[in-house]
């Protein structure tokens, strides 16, 4: 489940936390929001940022050999 969480502090700072998005695509998701919020001071990537997407393939390889007995 993809989640964006924003904490707005009394001094106007906004903390953004993104969960459920694997890889650098979280930057694409948040770019428009960050542009409206203002200057980004820091980025702290989570472990999900560095994780690789897992793709499952349904291809099966079968090899049959016959002996000449």
Secondary structure elements and their pairing?
Blueprint: E1 3-8, E2 14-19, H1 25-37, H2 47-50
Antiparallel strand pairs: 1-2
* Spans where pLDDT lies below 50 across 5 or more residues: none
The description of the largest β-sheet is: 2 strands, antiparallel
Overall strand count: 2
Radius of gyration: 22 Å
Distance between the termini: 58 Å
**Share of residues in strands:** 15-25%
Give the count of helical stretches: 2
Judged by helices, strands and strand pairing, the structural class is alpha+beta
Strand order, largest beta sheet: 1-2
Average pLDDT rating: 81
Helical residues, percent:
10-25%
**Secondary-structure element sequence?**
EEHH
Shape, please? rod-shaped
Structural description of this entry:
With 69 residues, this protein is α+β, with helices and mostly antiparallel strands. The protein has a domain at 3-50. The chain has 2 helices and 2 strands, in the order E-E-H-H. The protein has helices at 25-37, 47-50; strands at 3-8, 14-19. A hairpin with a 5-residue loop joins strand 1 and strand 2. The protein is rod-shaped and about 85 Å long. The termini are far apart. It comes from Nostoc minutum NIES-26. Pfam families: DUF2997.
What's the quick description here?
With 69 residues, the chain is of the alpha+beta class.
Which features characterize this protein?
alpha+beta, 25% helix, two-stranded antiparallel ribbon, 69 residues
